[in-house]
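Quarterly update from the structural biology core.
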Amino acid sequence: MVAELLGLPSVLLLTSLLSLTIYAVEINHPGEVVYRESRAYGVLGKAVILECGTTIPDMYIWSFTKPGTQAIRAVVYNLGDGPKIQKLAKNLGKLQIISNSAAISIDKLPLTAHGLYTCQAIYMREEPLVVYYYVHLSVRVPVSKPYLVVSDASPQEGSTMWMRCGLDNGTGPIKYVWQHETRNGNLSTFAQSNNNMVNVTDVNRNHTGWYRCLVSNPVNRERSDRIWLDIIFGPDVPRIGVTPFSITERGYSALERETVSLLCEAQSNPPSQYVWFYNNSQVSSEALFTITRILRMHTGDYACLAHNTYLNTRARKSISLTVYYPPDGSPSCSVEPAQNHSSLRLLCSWPGGFPSPSLSWTGQDVDTLGQETDELTNSAILLQSPKTSDNMEFMCTGSHIALKQPTHCSTRTYVPPAEPGCYAYATRNNQYLMLSCSWNGGAPKALVWWEGPGGQGQVAEENSNILVLRYGVARSGHPYTCHAKHPLLIETKTCRLTLEAPVLMTQRSVVSVYEGSDVQLTCILRTNYLPVNEIVWFNNQREEVWDTSSKKYQLQREASWANLTVRDTDGTLDSGQYWCSASNAVGGSEIPVTLLVKRYPMPPNATLASAIYNSRYRTEVELEWETESEEQLTGFILEHRWVAKEAEEEKEDGVSTQAWYRNIIEDPEARSHTVQWLTPTATYQFRVTPVNHRTIGHPSAAKTPAGPSSSSLPAIIGAAIGGMLFAAILTMLLLIFIIRNRNNNPRLHDMLFGSQMSQSRENINYPEDEVVASSDVVIEETASASPGLALPRAASPHAPAPVSITPGSSQAPPTGDDDEPVNVTITVKATGS
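Predicted structure, tokenized:
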């Protein structure tokens, strides 16, 4: 067995024993093994000593057996050559061999050291002795700091709860003790047992306080931190205290203008929230409700509501508070009619106050009459009107126990100073007509009522009366009478109203105007009663004209007239019948005004005479046109369009696909115009249309402008030839002049002809008359041809051509150019349908 514990070969152990036997004691026969058991206790983290007998054995082996297992493991052994500590010892704490003994010491005892320790001791004596020492080591854990856990830290009164003393570490047996500390500091043991939980049934408010638990075991003793157990309860029925304290049959009472305090208290945890109610209306949210300078209106029921917000429970208590006060102000006196406005009744009233005041009348003829006083603090006296004079005064005296002196009021009777007044006015849109009659002033008030034709009337009312009539019900031209009666007068007074419907007139019932002009239609209202609501105009479509800022219509209104201006008239849209209408609450009327919008006559037809490019750049075209007459013209419309070569064909219906572009000429005297900013590469067509105001005539035939190359070349050539002929004729005339005046200017003659030519002067014969005539012709033709240079138009085929004159030859007729372009004017006449 020893070999198994130490893990040594059995031969080695036997040799050792034999050696011991040789050198120690000789064992003649084997003896019995001795077994001894003991218990040891250690504390976790502390030190413990395990003894292996009282005598030091010659050899020993310490082994450890973990609880729950059968395995034996060697911890330390000594076979005579000194102790040998095994690796297993590290798991059992800090293990040491006590010198001069076989005992072992374990420091910093862990929980793993808990188990069975076996010491096999061998004593080598005369008879070898083997002793087994079994030491049961128990590692005890000290109790840790406990903590208290409750099922509900704020339990409700009457409920059940439990408290548990939690403990993380500690070796049993453990004892648990619960302590209770009240608010006043009194400490008592609440419960104690070996169980860590205690149940509390029927929790009450006395359980409120601090609680802690104490735990103990054989090792140590600890106590937990205290926790507060808050018992929730209440609220109980509140108690109300009133200051100053005064009780009557109805409850509490107070005098007006005193300061009254109401205090509400109720047992509750958590403390209750208090709400004060006055006649079921909340007035305060504090426990103390103070009314400074209490007034009469504070009389009523006051209730205190205590509310536990945690439990959502409530308790309520009410009291009645009465405030004694005198009536406000002073008595009020009045006089009213009685017995169908044939008598007078004096009224004296002083409401309010507690208790009620006393009232009494004084005045002429009052002492002999009986006075009636009701429970509403009123006093009344009936007087006969014939015995009562106009403008008489009566006095009422009131007294109250809360006042030091009585108060007074007075009233006076008199007839209204003025006469009854009658008025009539209508509501919006004349839906109703109201006749008002009033007779203000006087004491008491007069009685007023209406009487009209056909039994129309109104129930009598005081001071004023209004008779309401629907639209169309009032009788035009019939009087409506208002009657007014006062108790101080025997006869009634009256006033009358006579109603009339409106009557309209116009200056012209038929108005004619040319289109494009503005025209004004007039409507005049004749004086009538009642006034009309408004004069309304309707256009030729029977639509009401509302907008005065319209571009088409303009309205001008006054109380008695309304004019409608139709702007920019159009024959198709504006011709027709216009209506002027007016109405009041009695009735209405309307008159028609006919508007005839005439068109201007058709303008005379225009013909486009010429259309020519004025330069080789083809960006401007000069147009000239003619009209059949000069009358009925206000302008022209010049139109042009671009005609592409591939679009020159027309549609099947004969209408070109290109659009016309307009240019308005507002001058009726204009007969020519230059169109600019044209595209040189495009082909254009032009036409002219005459205009007479808004009447547009028929357009002329379209014309394409002629190019400058074909029309200006003959004129340029003619101008050049004419210039050359003109220069030649001038030169010849100069020579003839010098020759004829050679005697007056010999030097000039000699300078030109020389002296050698003077002898043959008479031999020269010039046909001066013919030359001069020919020169005149050439000059005239040149002058007529020169304008062709300024105006690039085609020359007429009938114009004379310039002539070249050569000395000694006769004139030759000019040769015509067959390719020269000719202008042809086509006049188209059209009549408007």
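The two ends are 153 Å apart (CA to CA).
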